[in-house]
Amino acid sequence: xxxxxxxxxxxxxxxxxxxxxxxxxxxxxxxxxxxxxxxxxxxxxxxxxxxxxxxxxxxxxxxxxxxxxxxxxxxxxxxxxxxxxxxxxxxxxxxxxxxxxxxxxxxxxxxxxxxxxxxxxxxxxxxx
Length: 128
Fold this sequence. Notes:
Structural class: alpha+beta
């Protein structure tokens, strides 16, 4: 892989695939503000190979036609690896939405990336 945009995302996909032999990616699109983190859209895709490139992922995310600053990918697979069945994927996606709604810090447990495919994290806002 090159050191071009998205290299961190592409490395992460390869690592996740190697660990699971395929998985379902629960994807949350995020808007980041100076003191807030808003969930704006969500979906899931089944990852059945490690050839997912940043360019293709960004194109897919941009197709939502929503302005986004970051996205979180929660890899999920059943025991033994592979993608989830759709019914389970939908339920797990809702569970992740609920978790993030209650506690935005859960995003740091995911593959959390900016618009250039670089790993990011959020930190708690200190209230004065």
